Amino acid sequence: PVAAAQRDVAGAEEVLLVLDGEALALGRLWVLFEAFLALDVGKLRVACSAPGGFGDSEAALHKWKAHIDAADWVLAQATRKADDKRLRGFAERAWELRGHGVERLLAQLKRFLRREVYGQILVGAVRRGDRRAVELLLDNGASPEYRDVHGSTMEEVAWSEGCADIEELLFAKRMGNKSHLPLSAFFEVRELVEACDSASPDVLLPFFTEPEPQDGTSPSASPRGLDQDLEETAFGSPLVGRRLPRALDRALDLSPVASR
């Protein structure tokens, strides 16, 4: 039976894990075993057989969070004792001894289920216009970049439902999860210095000067280098301060140059 399950998973395009409304399937040893195999090769999909699927509310989130957290390989059961012994023996020989521990596989499965289940609940909450549920789902790890079965983003779904506030919330959350390069990363240092002519020195000067020490001592002099030469080019006098690209990045964000 174990070899047959491995062949079935290997030959399938995808493996659909269908959960009942109470997630009783997650308490079955065979279900977890086949889910581990499918997840390991990127073929696992998940759906819910209950009316309304996984739901679309805050209550649905709490319900499925508890169901997923309760999944446990040790407590899972098989109908026949022989299957129980066979599956656990295979797990110990093939996974535990090779470093692919069952606990690690179970953690990966739970992470996958949270992403997919929370994502499907998020789709329903967005369509229903439930901002509180959407916020709670995002706070619990639902991805703002999740797409529905038609390939639409959550922002597109919110827009189509006329929920502008939820659309803005999703946009802010999505952009907040991305890393943004500083302005100075897109320009050479001399290009930034040339742009300083378009900004008021009164705006830029504080960003180039080093704050006065709290103990009353004067700032330590830094070795003369390219940054100091460029500072003199920009303002006509030496300025002791922070590194030029960082200072310009902060200053230009406040200047008309950055808004062009």
How is this structure best described in words?
The protein has 260 residues and is mainly α. Helix content is 54%, strand content 4%. It has twelve helices and two strands; from the N terminus they run αβαβαααααααααα. Strands 1-2 form a two-stranded parallel sheet. β1, α2 and β2 (44-48) form a beta-alpha-beta unit. α2 crosses α5 (102-128), α5 runs antiparallel to α6 (131-139) and α9 (189-195) packs parallel to α11 (226-235). The protein is extended, with a radius of gyration of 28 Å. 25% of the residues are buried.
| Biggest sheet record | 2 strands, parallel
The structure class reads mainly alpha
Spans where pLDDT lies below 50 across 5 or more residues: 220-245, 254-260
Radius of gyration over C-alpha positions, nearest whole angstrom: 28 Å
The DSSP helix count reads 12
- Overall, the morphology is extended
List the helices and strands and how they pair.
Layout: H1 2-11, E1 15-19, H2 29-40, E2 44-48, H3 58-70, H4 81-96, H5 102-128, H6 131-139, H7 154-160, H8 164-176, H9 189-195, H10 201-208, H11 226-235, H12 244-252
Parallel strand pairs: 1-2
Helix pairs in contact: 2-5, 3-5, 5-6, 6-8, 7-8, 9-11, 10-12
